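>> received
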Amino acid sequence: MKTILSTAFVMLAMAVPICVAHAGDASLTEERINAFYEESLAAQKAGLVETIGFLEEHVHENSTTVINTISHMQGAPQNKQAMTLNKQELLRETEKGRQAMDLKSIENKILSVTVAADGRSAQVKDTTYSTLVLKMPGPGGQPVQFNVEQSMLCDTEIVLNDANVIQNKNNVCNSEVNIKPLTK
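>> returned
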């Protein structure tokens, strides 16, 4: 269960920095960054294929994503885990996580944006709240589902590549997850 949860939450850490830069824009602005975050949420909501496609293009080749997660599951001890992922690991773990969970809702709020003087990079602090359903085999192979609520605080460095495409370069996220059996 610990591994499933870790990989499942990777996709949510990337819920923000995965959208398309507008052609010809040679610098980052707060308005452009806000649009970037809105488009990234749309990709997450659209599904796995759209999410992976955006990640492939909009995560820097030398990116690092750090996710620190505290999980609370009804009837189980608290679990803490840290993951540090490069781009390829991020893509792989996002796919695994998305297959294990159904995204029900996701909201994001940008707390602060600091654009570098040259307009080629920015530091963004944001929060994301999401609800999901985790699906996994239970005793005797019977499927078991859990309601999952996740709150995340991320510090992200975004950059423009040589083609002026916005890319996620470095991401550090602290996540708290609450898991309860699904009741119908």
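>> The longest strand covers residues 143-160.
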